[in-house]
Amino acid sequence: MTTTTFDTTAISPAIDAASALREGYAELGDVRLHYVEAGDGPLVLLLHGFPEFWYGWREQIAPLVEAGFRVVAPDLRGYDLSTRPGRFTDYTADKVADDIRGLIHEFGADSAMVVGHDWGGSVA
Question: Which residues contact 83 (CB under 8 A, 6 or more apart)?
């Protein structure tokens, strides 16, 4: 897993410098997931819908960080900066759910609070 920090004010006014947004990638078998992360505390994953990516959660990240959570918003497989497998069978809900289980473990947790919107809701 690699992580970098970048200027969050260029992304959205809702994500301010206080949230200390970090960007990274997790290698999960045949998939590399891009994510943004902020905060410390209990792990919360935010799963976007179709045809979005992590940015769809930009308004919720800072308030969750302020509430004491470690927030991770990945780009699900096939979206934005994450790996884009070539076969439609690579996008079943069980495969995407396996990605999220792997991501939770990459962050050193056995479980997490998972919030999903649209397609992300099916995965959650």
Answer: 30, 31, 32, 33, 77
CA neighbours within 13 Å on the CB side: how many for 95? 15
* Cβ contacts of 7 within 8 Å, gap of 6 or more: none
With cut-offs at 50, 70 and 90, classify the pLDDT of residue 20: confident
Specify whether the CB–CB gap between 71 and 61 falls below 8 A.
yes
Task: Give the residue-averaged pLDDT of 112-120.
Answer: 96
Residue with tokens 């959570």: 69
Which two three-digit tokens encode residue 7?
Answer: 């200027």
pLDDT digits (tens, 9 = 90+) for 56-96: 999 999 999 999 999 999 999 999 999 999 999 999 999 99
In our burial notation (b when 16+ CB lie closer than 10 A, e otherwise), range 7-33 reads: ebeebeeebeeebebbbbbbebeebeb
Residue 54: burial class (beta carbons within 10 Å; 0-12, 13-18, 19+): buried
Helices (H) and strands (E) in the chain, counts: 3, 6
- Please report, for residues 83, 106, 114, the alpha-carbon distance to residue 111 in angstroms, rounded to integers and kept in the order given: 24, 11, 9
